Amino acid sequence: MRLSVLGIACSPRRNGNTTSLLLEGMRTAQAEGHITELVYLSDLKINPCQGCGACSAKGICVIKDDIPMLQEKLIQSDRLIIAAPIYFMGVNAQTKLMIDRMQTFWARKYLLNQSLIKPSGPERIGIFLSTAGTQLPNVFECAERTIKTFFHMLDIQYGESCLYSGVDKVGEIEESPQSFEEVRKATQTLLLS
Ligand SMILES: Cc1cc2nc3c(=O)[nH]c(=O)nc-3n(C[C@H](O)[C@H](O)[C@H](O)COP(=O)(O)O)c2cc1C
Hints:
Blueprint: E1 4-9, H1 17-31, E2 35-40, H2 55-58, H3 67-76, E3 79-83, E4 86-87, E5 90-91, H4 93-100, H5 103-111, E6 125-132, H6 141-153, E7 157-165, H7 177-192
Bound molecules: flavin mononucleotide.
Flavin mononucleotide binds near residues 167 and 168.
């Protein structure tokens, strides 16, 4: 089955470590004949959630920016690969900005009882790719919890994660060919699931 695979590059460094891993995943999906689309968060205009509660009424956000366009892509995709770096022991601000705006999905799901899933579509699954400069224990813990909550909100099953610590400068991930191999395998599993 030909799946639509959405990749979201969340780092502000377009040539950074997480984006390199994501590109490997997207190449894998493309090589296997799936439809791929790559979005760089740094290209989008995203304002922070104001917590105004307006979305509780109709499930629509009052802020006019690129989030509705991204939400549509998230709804339509069968598979998601999200790549985000660790900043201050959590996901970077750009990623969190995007995720907080998914509050409209929370309102649709829990207040308005609307389903986000395409009735005839396959089960939706996603994977999480990340790098962190330090090798502190649990360095990915907060980020993984945030991403799992984001996936849950969108009815996306959390497939697996490829997380690499001790990777800091741009290009440093290239020193670990094994990480690319793992992302290839995780993507293949994602597409077979
Ligand atoms: C503002 C900022 C905060 C960071 N905070 C952490 C941190 O708390 N823990 C850590 O291990 N690395 C931290 N890092 C390092 C990044 O996680 C690391 O450089 C990562 O590989 C960046 O991924 P990228 O190349 O995809 O942007 C931080 C980097 C920046 C710029």
